[in-house]
Amino acid sequence: MRPRVGQVAVSVVLAAVVLLVAGTAWLAAPEPTDPAARARAIETTLRCPTCQATSVADSPAMAARQMRQVVEQQLRDGRTDDEIRAYFADRYGPWILLDPGSGGAAAIVWLLPGAVLLGGALLLVRRGRRAPMAPSPEARQDVQPRRRAAELGLLATMLVALLAPIPSALGSRAAGTSSSGGAPGASPSIADLEAWVAANPSDAEALTQLGDALLASGNLAEASGRYQSALAADPTAAGPKLGLAAILVESGRADVAAPLIDSVLAGKGRDADALLMKVLADAQLYGPSDARTHVDASRFLAAAGPDDPRRTTVEAILAGDASGPPPTEYPGTGSSNP
Amino acid sequence: MGAIGFAATFIGTGSALIGLVAALQAVRGRWQPEAATAAAIASAIGFAGAAAAMVAALLTHDFSVSYVAQVGSRSTPVLYTVASLWAALEGSILLWTLLLSLVTVAAARWLAGRAPDRRPVVLLVLLGLTAFFGVLLLGPGDPWRPVSPVPADGPGPNPLLAQHPLMAVHPPLLYLGFVGLAVPFALTVDGLWHHRLDQRWLSDATQATTAAWVPLTLGLVAGAWWSYAVLGWGGYWAWDPVENVALLPWLTATAFLHSAMVGRRTGGLLGWNVSLVGASFILTLVATLVTRSGVLQSVHAFTQSAIGPLLAGLVAASLIGTVGLAVLRLPPERAGSVGGPRGVAILANNLLLVTIAATVLAGTMFPLIVEAVDGSRVSVGAPYFERIVGPVGAVLLGLAAVGPSLPWGHWSDRVATRIVLPALAAGLGAAAAAGAGLGAGGVVGLAAACFSLAATVSALLRRARLRPLSIRRPGGLVAHLGLAVMAAAIVMAGAGRSDTDLNLRQGEQAEVAGHRIELLATAGGSPAGAMSLEASVLVDGTPLNPGPRLTVTPTSGRAFATPAVRPGPFGDVYLSLLDADPATGAVTIRVASYPFISWLWVGGGLLAFGGVIALLPRRRNARPLMEVASAEEVVGGPAEVPTGG
């Protein structure tokens, strides 16, 4: 069928409008030379660490205002936009970037809408081209008995899906949450661990657990020895490093603890246990009201769960209450609390 | 009060379970469906009693009830005490269950006069859902657990939820929309089960979806407005996961309201329509799962309450059941005409709406999946969503403008002349946006909004002139008008916004964005243990009451900047108190201006009003659309039906 005059006219008018609008938009696109506009462009891609989902540009929160000052400072220092984003990602983890980036798994998020759009359009075109076919009402009658069994199976599957969570739901109410659990059970006694470690002297995880248990019971000297054995067995393990750091901070040697904590943070940037140790070390090294302490404290608050009991410790430090509640939750023991 | 409430909940749940058996017997043809209806009414009375008991317990500060001890407080005003019913998990489930049981009764009565033979399966599905949530309320979500010793006072609701009266309407409207979408789903299950996905089904499912779509739309707009008026950052939509999951069912339900028109014209798109109805319902369950299971705080918080896994089971069962039933019982698709240029435009609309839904779903779920897989936390936020939804939305807006003017049958050259005026308007909009320095997004957005506005207004005028409104009501056009108004407001408020942080001492004034701001005084207070500071401000010589407020709650260490807004038809002045120096009395106030933002709420109201118009009963002498469609089926193809729009 030849296109009608009207169709041609509509197409021409629409194309002209789209071209005009696109041209105007291209001309109207502002050059990002104005520092305030550049700062805002960066700030809209950074997450305010203490808010729900707002960006640093929009949030009235204190943490966001401090981050805006950092962005402005770094722009004055001549850093590029990407360098500034990388600086924050480095300090807070990739979570701080509202834009997921396009590398790795994040590519899926970018490709999916295009795939849906393209796939759907292809389906539509194919549908449009297919010749009309007559409906076959008799087809639906004779298949019914044969599908009886399939329908019963479907019902059974639905029931299983509906009922399957009940045991786990009951379990989670009865037992509370349990930690992932090392070899000798979820929360073993010191004696059990000693026995296990005696049989498996190079099990770094069990050694760390033993260290944690000893630390919690106040036996710092023995805990330190167990952590060092654990480190000897697995020099990259984070648990014994944090345990040692806790002992060092406890004994007033935050200066020695700091590099240990930093090496853990370099591996996993937003680990709440490590960040807590960092805050405690900062408070000892620089004092509770220092900006460095506050930055690390807000990183911890962002990383910790909302019900994390250790929040109160850090919030007390932030509030300038240097005496504060004592940090009774040590790194290894904190995660086993519900 | 706790015992009464628990008893009422028990009666509601028990009646729903009895009704479930009665509905099953009715499906098998052994009992009359009236038995199941009676049980549904008893269930609704039970849950209404439970909700009333909870409100009474909240109002009388009965802290022996665990939910009251959790969200109640003697210092909370009455309005927010009542609204505390939906301020936390257990109360929200109670409200949800109450609305579900009321909707069940309404659906049974509606179908009694319309399609009585469809009641058994519909009641089976709806009572099954009610019973599920009732069991949640009796078990893991029990709000009536006794507290001992009884506390003298409670912490009150989340302070953010007790700031603005919109909190009293936003959650109930949203929930009503959510549970309402279960009705078209139940009708679809009946259609699949009894092999009657006919025009009657399509017409009923469309009506039921529209009835749910209106409160859902209003609930979303009210939520955006609340967020603008309370959160203090001037935004109304943060692409927060909680907002995103509420938008998802709206997108698919809107797509269905459009694709159903093609179905009614041509009898085609059966599988697609079933999918959209099923997806809309399951997405409402996903929304409940995501917002109510703690999964957003951390994937690992998911199993801490039994509610999350149970809801996940419900989602899985619904998904398996719907897909399985569709595979087994969906009749073979009638491939035929898609309904001419109008049908093609509607299919394109569906494609774009589903693309937006897929984008929002992927962006919301991606961080959760990453955290579950390797424990690391990533963000997918506004920059991602805006970059994809913006352009797709602009094209959608253009389609909404031309779609209603396209013919169902064959092309006519008359249509071509209808595009001239909107095209001129788009050019003007682009020029205006460029002149105002709104940037590239602003130019494209305003051009699309003006195009849509002009096309819709002229279509409405044509409709009013050409034919009596009783035959084809302009519900769709009014909704499109609302959409265009919203789009214009979003573009102008977003691209034209400006803000300045002012440092003012008492008695000082400053001129910002054409407005004179003067700080009169500051007054502090400590309501409910929080430290609060309010600034008295003159904007252009008249006082702003109440003024912007900064509240710091020592327990959480969080600060809330409650803004003060001077609304106007051409733009709002929006003040947030950021900081105060108690020593000097100086304050930092952010003064922001959002041009034309009030029109966002007006447009949202128009959008929902379009749905209301579509629901109004037809005049008796008007020929229902369904008959037109069945007449077309007899002659074997879509007749040329002149459309005024």
Number of strands of chain A: 0
- Overall geometry of chain A comes to flat
* H/E topology pattern of chain B: HHHHHHHHHHHHHHHHHHEEEEEEEEEEHH
The span between the termini of chain B is 57 Å
Task: Quickly give the structural class of chain A.
Answer: mainly alpha
- As a whole number of angstroms, the C-alpha radius of gyration of chain A is 30 Å
Helix content of chain B: 55-70%
Strand coverage percent of chain A: under 5%
The average pLDDT of chain A is 71
Separate helix tally of chain B: 20
Mean pLDDT of chain B: 85
Order of helices and strands of chain A: HHHHHHHHHHHHHHHHH
Distance between the termini of chain A: 70 Å
> Which pair has the most extensive contact?
A-B, 95 and 101 residues
Global structural class of chain B: alpha+beta
CATH topology of the domain at 190-334 in chain A: Serine Threonine Protein Phosphatase 5, Tetratricopeptide repeat
The largest pleated sheet of chain A is described as: none
Give the C-level CATH assignment of the domain at 190-334 in chain A.
Mainly Alpha
SS summary, helix count of chain A: 17
> Spans of chain B of 5+ residues with little confidence (pLDDT < 50)?
620-645
